[in-house]
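Each record in this resource describes a single protein on a pair of labelled lines. The shape at a given residue is found from the number at the same position. The record below illustrates this layout:

***
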Amino acid sequence: MWQDYYRPRTIDEALEILAAHNGEARIIAGGTDLVLDLKNKSKQARYLVDIRSIEGMGVIEEKGGKIYLGAGVTHSQAANSQLIREKATALAEAAAQVGSLQIRNVGTVVGNVVNAQPAADAAVALVALEAEAEIVHTDGRRELVKVEDLYVGPGHSKVDSTRSIVTGVYIPERANCRSVFGRIAPRRSLALPVINVAVTLALEGRRVSYTRIAAGPVGFKPLRLGEVEDFLLGKELSDEIIRGACKKAAEIAQPRNSRLRGSKEYRQYLVGVLLERAYKELAG
């Protein structure tokens, strides 16, 4: 386990600590995944750098036409935020279904991304919302990266938390755009879902002017269903068109056979089921 625990007051101080320990210090916020990873030795750290005391880490606010969530925002905060519920509904709905109440009160939305699990509910919603992560590095670089581009493989993020900090995420606000999140999971279970889907949609009349779809776990990361988005763009949302989109989504999704989650074919079918529910709700 770790030897020392730091609580810096600024981002610059946190970066200095990471740099000074040269890969042996690691960022922690909620810690609901990291503490377990350290215990089972899938990750290592001699020093932990807790960023929750840094000003702005728990902020949810509008900035320049985007919604900003600091890296310390918990799932409970996101689920109960009036701003998120109104303008990024899929994230509020996803965050409300993460783990147990105790986990939601401690675990963070950004941690859900950095942990890099392909079925992580909040991360799937953020991909459908075209969210970008704000990242600062010990070498002085600062960048914005789409959440969907942060994945290397299941459980492996491009963000190295021994040398970089995700300080928050930005969600673009789009006129007349609504979103929804759907999930199928074992009953009475706090496990990851069998399938989850998040959809954003903007209509001009009944015609699709904008849409984004993300699903998990049907690949090594929350999967954008771009071909389905292209199929829907410019079309009127009839029942026939929705069924066609769902069929295409089921064909594109490539979940693996799982003893816990079900067969590939069953889970492909569920992608279509959740997508149909989402578009009917959003178009209603």
